[in-house]
Amino acid sequence: MSMTSRDRVLAAYNHLEVDRPPIWCGMSKEFQEKAKRELGLDDEQLRVRFGDDFRWARADYTGPQIPFSNPEVHTRTVFGIERKGIGYGHGISVPLKDATLDDVENYAWPDPAWMDVSRLRGVIAQWEGQYAIMGGEWSPFWHDVIDLIGMEDMYILMYEDPALVHTVFGKVVDYYHAVNQRIFEEAGDLMDLFFMGNDFGSQTGALISPDMFGQFIQPHLKRLIDQAHEFGLKAQMHSCGSIPELIPCFIEAGLDGLHALQPDCRDMNAADLKKDFGDRLVLNGGIDSHHTLICGTPEDVKKETLRVLGIMTPGGGYIAGASHDTILEETPVENVLTMFDVIQQFK
Length: 347
Description:
Layout: H1 5-13, H2 29-39, H3 43-50, E1 54-56, E2 60-61, E3 73-76, E4 82-84, E5 90-91, H4 101-106, E6 115-116, H5 120-125, E7 132-135, H6 141-149, H7 151-160, H8 162-187, E8 193-197, H9 210-216, H10 218-230, E9 234-238, H11 247-252, E10 257-261, H12 270-277, E11 282-285, H13 292-295, H14 298-312, E12 318-319, H15 333-345
Parallel strand pairs: 1-7, 7-8, 8-9, 9-10, 10-11, 11-12
Antiparallel strand pairs: 2-6, 3-4, 4-5
């Protein structure tokens, strides 16, 4: 049975038989550049070599270009939060700390028209229906609200001023919903999945209780998922960490796929996740990138990959890949090649 990448992914989302597990390849820019140098490949050739079954078509930001406030800042979110530090970094200001409802209403919220969708159809056309196409904004509304209010203050205000917290979440999700509407109206007919990211877990447990998640987060999550479903798209969300107590909330909100399972977090072992949720949710990831991929030998990687595949592939509904959103620069390219080669050869 020979399948295209797109056929393979859609079959997995319908819990049907596939010729091999679909492959997910999320890479940090630094690892991607290192792998391209070592293998002598360009961006697309590298994804083909790894067997990646997905491609991501994104809108282009064309909004205001505001100079950073100091040389240490390396990025600014669309909500005006400057960030510095390793990787995505951390925010250096909390603009809605101690805000009133009037302050929230009067905040300089971004304009969805800043995201240009005019290139999307042309970008997708290059893949000619071969790959599963992801679209939509990353929509990290949980993180955006934390950046705007402050994490500790947000938790306190959930009890002391819930109306303010609800309003901030609503403003943030209004923006992502409007941008996604523009994206899906422009090219949703060429897409297969809406992919977003919100990290709701730490190494040892969820960052919010299921009850509070249901009050403050789930309605907004459901709103974005429902929007994707209206355009015929599957909805997949990234969430790091230990989140087993929240997964039923994700399912209740209509989520179709969960990425990227971290086996070294509390209660996130592959067998339990497959048993408890594998018939209701596509599970993506679970091959240890925290220890095995970085520190192990190719033989270690082969054994771990085969172990996870043996647990997760029966009954379908599994997408194979590393246990983090992005493979880090310090990861040996040989180990990553071993992981993806084992997946491609698995029957």
